[in-house]
Amino acid sequence: MKRFASLAVAPGGAGRLFDIYGATESGMIAAECAHHAGLHLFEDLSIIEVVNERNRPVPPGVYGDKLLITVLFNRAQPLIRYELTDSVRLSGKDCPCGRPFATITDVRGRLEEILRFPAAAGGEVAVNPVIFDQVMDRLPGGEWQVVQEAGGLTVLLAGAPEGLEDDALAGDVRRALESQGAVAPPIAVRRVPAIPRLATGKAPLIRSSLREKATR
């Protein structure tokens, strides 16, 4: 999943930010218009289905478990109901701009990157990966990966400056989790030569060894 902002500059010099959502596999999926009332799906380029874990459509206002995307323009590598484990929510409302395309009001990210923790109020809380991004993206250089294990969280750092205080970073992660209502587990920071990669060659920012073991 890729979600980023595009800056549009008017002739007078003023700029406005527009939220854009896309993926490597399918290209751009949705983007805001000038009303900023949601992201319009590019339904003239792809068939985009918001579905649950059984590939059944979910109603507007409900987060799906994944997307099924059929790309209409790529003849070199056709994608038919290609699965993206992004959790998004359809608005079900017409945009004031008058465009006929459906809109989504929120993108929660890849399902496998959402970590679950005991909640301080009881039960369980799902923590969006953006919570870790907000902490880790302040690091002065280097790469990182957050790994959820049975004994807690391990923050892997590669190429981070030696002057960085590992205990302070662990404390920032703990407070970020607590701000989401989670009971923070033990958090350890470990320096590594390089961030481990999956068999696909990717180095995900968020991993859960608990989920990986459960799916084997």
Task: Explain the layout of strands and helices.
Layout: E1 2-9, E2 15-23, E3 27-32, E4 39-41, E5 46-51, E6 66-71, E7 82-84, E8 86-90, E9 103-110, E10 115-118, E11 124-127, H1 130-136, E12 143-149, E13 152-158, H2 166-179, E14 187-191, E15 206-208, H3 209-214
Parallel strand pairs: 12-15, 13-14
Antiparallel strand pairs: 1-2, 2-3, 3-4, 4-9, 5-6, 6-7, 8-9, 10-11, 12-13
Helix pairs in contact: 1-2
Task: For this entry, give a set of tags.
four-stranded mixed sheet, GMP Synthetase, Chain A, domain 3, globular, six-stranded antiparallel sheet, 216 residues, 2 domains, 12% helix, mainly beta
Shape: globular
Task: Please tally the helical runs, counting DSSP H or I stretches of 4 or more residues.
Answer: 3
Helix content: 10-25%
Return residue spans where pLDDT drops below 50 for at least 5 consecutive residues. Answer: 1-10
Oligomer: single chain
Largest sheet: 6 strands, antiparallel
Strand order within the widest beta sheet: 1-2-3-4-9-8
Could you report the average pLDDT, rounded to the nearest whole number? Answer: 85
- Computed CA radius of gyration, to the nearest angstrom: 19 Å
Strand content: 35-45%
Class per helix and strand makeup:
mainly beta
Taken together, the total number of domains comes to 2
The ordered H/E elements are EEEEEEEEEEEHEEHEEH
Q: Count of DSSP E strands?
A: 15
Terminal CA distance reads 24 Å
